[in-house]
Amino acid sequence: MADIPANIDDTIAALTAESYVCGRDLGTVVFLALKLGKPLFLEGEAGVGKTEIAKALAAALGRRLIRLQCYEGLDAASAIYEWNFAAQMIAIRTAEASGGARREDLQAELFSQDFLIQRPLLQAMEAHAEGPPVLLIDEVDRTDEPFEAFLLEALSDFQVTIPEIGTVTAPEPPIVILTSNRTREVHDALKRRCLYHWVDYPAFERELAIVNARVPDCAATLSAEIVAFVQALRGEDLFKNPGVAETIDWARCLIALDAVALSPDVISDTLGALLKYQDDIARITGSEASRILDEARLKLAEAS
Question: Using CA atoms, how far apart are residues 172 and 183, in angstroms rounded to an integer?
Answer without folding.
Answer: 32
